[in-house]
Amino acid sequence: MDTAVSQNATVAAAAGAGSGGGLAGLLPEVQTLEVLVAVSIFVAIHSLRQRRTQGLPTWPVVGMLPSLLLGIRGDMYEWITGVLKARGGTFTFRGPWFTNLQCVVTADPRNLEHLLKTRFGSFPKGPYFRDTVRDLLGDGIFGADDEAWRRQRRAASLEFHSAEFRALTASSLVELVHGRLLPVLAGAEAAGAAVDLQDVLLRLTFDNVCMIAFGVDPGCLRPGLPEIPFARAFEDATEATTLRFVTPTAAWRAMRALGVGHERVLRRSLAAVDEFAYDVIRRRREELGGDDAGAGRRSSDLLTVFTRMRDEDGRPYTDKFLRDICVNFILAGRDTSSVALAWFFWLLRRNPGAEARILEEIEGILAARKEAGEVVVEEEVVFRPEEVKRMEYLHAALSEALRLYPSVPVDHKEVIWRENN
């Protein structure tokens, strides 16, 4: 009897211990779930509250970076437009601690007029921007301020409006479109192959801008679409320079000193860019004879023009200055034109009505040629400047594409505080 009671008591105690142990093991899981729910509610409330007051939620350490990373995964143009619209056209972006992503973002036309026109001198690019891009762009117009900027802009503006420069631009583009772009597209169509239009257009504009800047044809759009070392180096240098803007200044300067990460890529790419540029400059000086011996050279590329020019002291421009002028111009003409064209054709694909109206406008100009007695071979048509000016709908469509998807959607400015500013 005593033994049986003892055994029963032992079983009951064991069962009780098992039941208590199960509840004790379940409690941490319940508490964890409650904490997660509480954190989720806090995050939601915090995000909604700060979205109303600041445009984007701000978090400790990382600032608004999470929202930025989520926004650029989709249509960044629509995302940033929505944020600006909700904040009346202007909001303050707060990036991670210890970074330079702290800025006021504005799309208000009144602010833009004040920054870019009314008080232009009070809002330069500033030392931060110049220091960040100097390795690639040197003292060229994109990184210059004040008198250095005005001097380069004045010299470049005079050349851009010259008849010779316009003729060079038009002739090189016609040659590239008819001699390379159309055969590449026709070959892909015949083979039933897909075409990366953005890559093809980037090759087109790179060849064109190099011919205009250096008077040299890199051949990016040749059959087979070969990889050109100078083009690859320029692309890598541009990308590595852009990464500096999202990297703490102290961090990328340390990386540059140690030669690691994207700073190592930048150093290697810049060496290739400089080798190409200085070699072309050396050969051009030899062709021009370093004097007026090359005055008969017909080329109107920027390098030739600036090699002949003199600075304010009457001395020839240095090789470094010529290199900076040409590299800045390549950067200005390469991505902007190709990006604009890529968005334009993407929009046409989504709006067949607009495409039909552009084709109708072109057919009208060809019909006018036929009425004038000209023989029109559509595969070889090159439109004259006066005919292009009559393509009003095409011009409107291009303008609308640039409005919706601008090639340079962001312009960096700092402020100089002056008395009575």
Automatic annotation (TrEMBL):
One of its GO terms (molecular function) is heme binding. The keyword DNA repair does not apply. Keywords: Iron, Metal-binding, Oxidoreductase. Belongs to the cytochrome P450 family. The lineage of its organism: Eukaryota, Viridiplantae, Streptophyta, Embryophyta, Tracheophyta. It comes from the Eukaryota. Pfam families: p450. It comes from Zea mays. This is Cytochrome P450 86B1. PANTHER family: CYTOCHROME P450. InterPro entries: Cyt_P450 (IPR001128), Cyt_P450_E_grp-I (IPR002401), Cyt_P450_sf (IPR036396).
